[in-house]
Design brief:
Elements lengths: L5 H4 L23 H6 L5 H14 L2 H8 L2 H7 L21 E6 L10 H15 L5 E5 L11 E6 L1 H4 L4 E4 L4 E4 L1 H10 L5 H16 L29 H6 L10 H10 L6
Parallel strand pairs: 1-2, 1-3, 3-5
Antiparallel strand pairs: 4-5
The protein binds zinc ion (ZN).
Zinc ion binds next to helix 9.
Length: about 270
């Protein structure tokens, strides 16, 4: 089922410095035991003291954990109760038991070399493979017709319908929108469009793995920041969501993978 990306990436079309996500829903989460154990939050001096105490206690690993940002924690771990969607689709198994993707570089913007984008496709596929569904990435050969089961990653204004990206599960195309990236460069020239492209590829690829609903957890690559009614996504620390241009991860997070595993009948981790 095709789906639109406009609401996914609207915020990065705006200039930096503006408040892209004005109010984020708060959601109760379990205490961060690792941080609480070793490191008082906020004050650098107290953090240093905490690190010294931690070293004395022999819990060096916890020091590393304490230096991790909330966003990084959210990317790495999916806590109980954090899997939540907007209810805009029903997750299902991947479109086939083995997925194949191939990047067709024709019509790509000059800034995105064939090697760069093919690498992004491979990186996204490698991360999604943690779901447990077999996936490979094939080299595109001009003039050769790909096998019918191969998902073609392509630059297509028609296929993307003006969006950054669009997944068509029936046609097995993952279309990228050149005009959307050109608009992004115009509106926000300091933004690294490579990050956006990696995110779009990862997001759209997730639909082929069976994730049809969009996540309410801001950091998930399958997230939508808000819905049509103005409801906002959630984070463990909403202030950090508001502090950055793009909070969503560029690759699938732990919750994306966990939801993918559930959709595909994989055993819990
Ligand atoms: Zn989507």
């Amino acid at each position: 089922m095709p789906e639109r990306m406009n609401t996914v990436l609207n915020c990065i079309l705006r200039s930096k410095g503006k408040d892209q996500q004005s109010s984020i829903h708060r959601k109760p989460v379990a205490a961060d035991l690792l941080t609480v154990c070793c490191l008082p939050r906020r004050k650098a001096l107290r953090r240093l003291v905490g690190a010294v105490v931690a070293a004395v206690l022999g819990c060096d690993v916890l020091i590393v954990s304490g230096a991790e940002s909330v966003r990084e924690q959210e990317i790495r771990e999916c806590r109980t109760g954090e899997i939540a969607t907007w209810g805009d689709g029903l997750d299902r198994p991947a479109i086939s038991s083995k997925l194949s993707f191939s990047y067709k570089p024709a019509n790509a913007p000059a800034e995105f070399s064939p090697t760069l984008v093919a690498g992004m496709v491979a990186k996204a596929a490698a991360e999604w493979s943690k779901c447990g569904v077999s996936v490979d990435v094939l080299v595109w050969v001009d003039g050769a017709r790909p096998a019918p089961d191969v998902v073609v990653v392509q630059w297509s204004g028609k296929g993307s319908a003006g969006n950054f990206g669009l997944a068509d599960l029936g046609k097995r195309t993952l279309s990228l929108g050149r005009s959307a990236f050109e608009l992004l460069r115009t509106r926000n020239p300091t933004h690294d469009t490579r990050e956006t492209l990696q995110m779009v590829i990862s997001h759209e690829m997730g639909h082929f793995f069976g994730l049809m609903a969009h996540s309410r957890r801001c950091v998930d690559v399958l997230s939508y920041y808000h819905d049509a009614k103005g409801e906002k996504c959630f984070s463990r620390d909403p202030s950090q969501v508001r502090a950055v241009t793009e909070y969503r991860h560029v690759l699938p997070t732990a919750c994306d993978i966990e939801r993918c595993r559930a959709a595909n009948g994989m055993l819990p981790r």
